[in-house]
Amino acid sequence: MLLDGYPHLAEVMPSAMALLDVPGQVDTLGLGEADRVCVLLVDGLGWELLRDHAADAPVLTELAGRPLRVGYPSTTAAGLAAIGTGVASGEHGFTGYTFEVPGVGVVNALRWRSHEDGSDVRGLLTPQDAQPLTTTFARATAAGVTTSVVSGAEYARTALTQAVLRGGRYQGVYALGDLAAEVLRALGQPRSLCYAYHSQLDQLGHVYGPGSPAWRMQLRHVDRLVESIVDGLPPGGLLAVVADHGMVEIGEKLDLDDTPDLLAGVRAFGGEVRARHVYTEPGAQADVLAAWRATLGERAWVCSRDEAVEAGWFGPTVSDLARPRIGDVVAAACDRFGMVRELAEAVESSLVGQHGSLTSAEQLVPLALARG
């Protein structure tokens, strides 16, 4: 279930930093040699999706040598934090799309807003308090590496960016053209580390479904982006293309708020459609766990917090910061099952494509390498 034997997404940046002689970093991925590196993260590009649609992405398919696993939950906030810290969710603390922070409530990690009423929580939870570890970008910069983040201009000042991407020069971009141009400009300097991010493949997968005509057309554009960067790589340059998760198309749905057996003893929900945190009333954890197991049956893996931690869902180490953010009960969907909240989470519940769980379709992403 945890896909042991595959390297973790959190190993990518430390391995890249090792090539640039950042102290204390080890190239566990065997990336080889380079004096300038770009890590390009394509949101939602699963290993199995790339395999199934290889004809739409011939460049990526040729470069993709092996898969990585992204860890639990397989969601963007956790994946970006793994890139930005070099550790799994149990250490960096971004344990879900939404998760409960003691004294603050359930927080949407992408929007930095209360999941209950949508209010801004910056006054209650600073980015540094949410994720206090020194980022990979800050460590690289401190070692004298020219470090940059190339991502959407709209994300430049967000709390999530400050929490997990701080430490490098942020270059906001608007489309695939300037993303490619800025990556190549960054790689024009020796001993440089560039992290770049593309979001739209994930967006179209959510709206139309992974593998849909719209998604496949976007994959073709992503492949052209990669080809453009590869064609411009300078000598000594390395491009590593990865992703934060894969995606599945939802089949069966169960509305949690319309299922009384799943509500008794529950005070709050976190997570998302494929990966639920269930926060219980005092003393109710055992009853809630039993009810969720009985009701969901083989449609989901259901564990207590301690069981999930012991099983390594959140990585080999779970910090005191991260532990209370994990639900008292944790449910990870199997197959194409979705745990929705049609009224409370209307937009999220309506999406065709979803991710977050432990299936190989969501967990495995490509590691595609190209050298100048």
UniProtKB/TrEMBL annotation:
<dbReference type="GO" id="GO:0016787">
    <property type="term" value="F:hydrolase activity"/>
</dbReference>
<dbReference type="Pfam" id="PF01663">
    <property type="entry name" value="Phosphodiest"/>
</dbReference>
<protein>
    <submittedName>
        <fullName>Alkaline phosphatase family protein</fullName>
    </submittedName>
</protein>
<dbReference type="InterPro" id="IPR002591">
    <property type="entry name" value="Phosphodiest/P_Trfase"/>
</dbReference>
<dbReference type="InterPro" id="IPR017850">
    <property type="entry name" value="Alkaline_phosphatase_core_sf"/>
</dbReference>
